[in-house]
Specification:
This protein has 405 residues and is of the alpha+beta class. The chain has 13 helices and 20 strands. Helix 6 crosses helix 13 and helix 10 crosses helix 13 (377-400). The chain binds zinc ion. Zinc ion (ZN) binds next to loops.
């Protein structure tokens, strides 16, 4: 077993300022069972227990070795600790902030952070890109938590328990279901993304039907259903025939802090006989050659390297994404659509969105029969209804707290 470069020395150094740093101690505890060396360079998993309101909840964070240090993905760490997180890619900055509004801003490769817009603190190690996401060392996380005044967290090394001072503490809300957090989950906002538009027609059917036209119509109908029947906010990434870059579509979802991102498409294949609906979730590795082909088709406007950096953030939502994808797929099947199994593929637009995200290839526009159907408003209404019912099912599962790693 390899516990990485940090041994007892590092642990001793951390002990005196233990109050806030549950995370580091979880990782550095001797004889720690969650340690593993994998091909991806994963050297440890954190498995402290969060105790709030008399209940405990296991937490698992990946940790990687980079330049001789252990690094934790900042977003996942922030989520577990009940902090808000944002990444400003164009500025290479990440921010974490508390429920009470204290905020720290970190810059990639800089060993400093700015707290509440005025105070600069030195960090033991700079913010770094590790395994496709921004990451910090446990010591850096400890210093950040202290600077943000998060002292209501307590770590008990003997039981590897992270205690939140009160059930209403943010850490309790982040990962512990409704039995601790009294406010039930609600579908507040869905971003519906009609694929393509403007100068990008998407795939074009044998008789000339354009994917961008079909996706807009389905998206509009889906938005209407969601607004009228769920009462949630719906944001369309485009509501007319205009070009929107893939980056921008995901950015809309991230800025809205939406609960779900649904990208609508129509599939195409050189094989004119290929037909049916298929729902995709993001993964860096495509689950089949065909899935890779579909992703390549939809990724025309993308920067693949950038996408890899977003990998970790989207992967954090995999359980949610796969649940939503499964429920939508079932609904499309109930409506008589020939549904293929859910697949994973490296869709750029999904990688970029940092919320649960799915991509629905509604039917094959390259199939003459399906192209004909896609011209029918009734058929499109059926597709929208199927996706809508799937989303409703997802919201019900979230409310029950039955989704999770
Ligand atoms: Zn498309």
């Amino acid at each position: 077993m390899n516990r990485g470069p940090r041994g007892a020395g590092a642990r001793r150094r951390l002990l005196p300022r233990v109050a806030a740093c549950a995370v580091c101690l979880g990782i550095l505890a001797p004889g720690w069972p969650g340690l593993a060396q994998s091909q991806s360079g994963l050297v440890a998993t954190l498995d402290v227990r969060l105790e709030a309101g008399g209940h405990t909840q296991p937490l698992v964070l990946p940790a990687w070795e980079a330049s001789g240090d252990l690094y934790l993905p900042l977003q996942a760490a922030a989520e577990y600790l009940g902090l808000e997180y944002a990444w400003y890619g164009t500025k290479n900055k990440a921010a974490v902030w508390t429920a009470s509004g204290h905020k720290a801003v970190l810059t990639l490769a800089m060993p400093t952070a700015v707290v509440d817009g005025q105070r600069m603190i030195r960090l033991p190690r700079p913010l770094k890109f590790v395994q496709g996401g921004v990451a910090v060392t446990p010591e850096t996380l400890l210093d950040l938590l202290q600077a943000l005044g998060e002292e209501s967290l307590l770590y008990v090394p003997e039981s590897r328990t992270l205690k939140a001072a009160a059930p209403e503490h943010a850490a309790g809300r982040a990962r512990v279901p409704a039995r601790v957090a009294p406010v039930p989950w609600k579908l507040r906002c869905v971003v519906v993304d009609p694929g393509h538009g403007g100068r990008d027609p998407g795939a074009v059917g044998p008789s000339g039907l354009k994917e961008k036209t079909v996706t807009l119509e389905i998206a509009r109908q889906l938005a209407k259903l969601l607004e009228e029947r769920c009462g949630c906010e719906v944001i369309l990434t485009r509501s007319d025939d205009r070009f929107i870059a893939l980056d921008q579509r995901a950015q809309i979802a991230n800025e809205a802090k939406a609960d779900l991102f649904v990208s609508i498409h129509a599939n195409a294949s050189r094989d004119r006989k290929a037909s049916g609906s298929q729902v995709f979730i993001y993964n860096r590795e495509a689950s089949s050659g065909k899935a890779a082909e579909t992703a390549a088709l939809e990724n025309s406007d993308s920067n693949y390297l950038e996408m890899i950096k977003d990998d970790l953030r989207q992967s954090a939502h995999e359980a949610d994404s796969i649940t939503a994808a499964g429920l939508i797929s079932q609904q499309l099947e109930k409506r008589g659509l020939d549904t293929r199994r859910i697949e994973r593929a490296p869709f750029y637009v999904l990688a970029k969105s940092h919320i649960p995200s799915i991509l629905v290839e509604t039917a094959f526009i390259s199939h003459p029969g399906e192209e004909r159907k896609l011209r029918s408003r009734r058929f499109l209404a059926g597709l929208a209804a199927g996706i809508f019912t799937g989303i409703q099912g997802y919201a019900a599962d979230k409310r029950r707290g039955t989704i999770g790693p």
